[in-house]
Specification:
Helix content is about 90%, strand content about 0%. It is mainly alpha-helical and about 110 residues long. The chain folds into 2 domains: about 50 residues; about 60 residues. The longest helix is centred in the middle third of the chain and has 31 residues.
């Protein structure tokens, strides 16, 4: 039984470490933020949510995953629209689809909070 608990903790820790390091590198290199700011943006939000709701790590992970998943989808849609506008290939149906997808992702973000 103790082996399973340790295995679960190790899997959660390594997953958080991998995602956290990638997020830190993204802030540092892609957005050209200082290392301290990148570190704060990466590790403080999950820590604050865990302090606010200390007994329920699953709900903290669900909120973070829901919000970041919605934001990531919004960024993908924004990149698609920007490329299409620059190429002059954006039709009315593309604008409607992009608007609907943005609306759905916005609702997902709101409902996950």
């Amino acid at each position: 039984m103790n082996v399973l608990i340790i295995a679960r903790l190790v899997s959660v820790f390594t997953s958080f470490l991998g995602i956290g390091l990638n997020l830190f590198e993204m802030y540092l290199h892609d957005y050209s933020l200082p290392a301290l700011t990148s570190c704060i943006l990466t590790f403080v939000p999950p820590l604050l949510l865990l302090i606010i709701e200390p007994c329920n790590f699953a709900s903290v992970a669900a909120v973070i995953g829901g919000v970041l998943g919605g934001v990531e989808g919004f960024i993908i849609i924004a990149c698609f629209v920007k490329i299409k506008v620059e190429e002059g290939l954006l039709t009315l149906s593309d604008k409607v689809v992009a608007g609907l997808l943005t609306f759905v992702l916005g609702i997902r973000i709101i409902l996950s909070i």
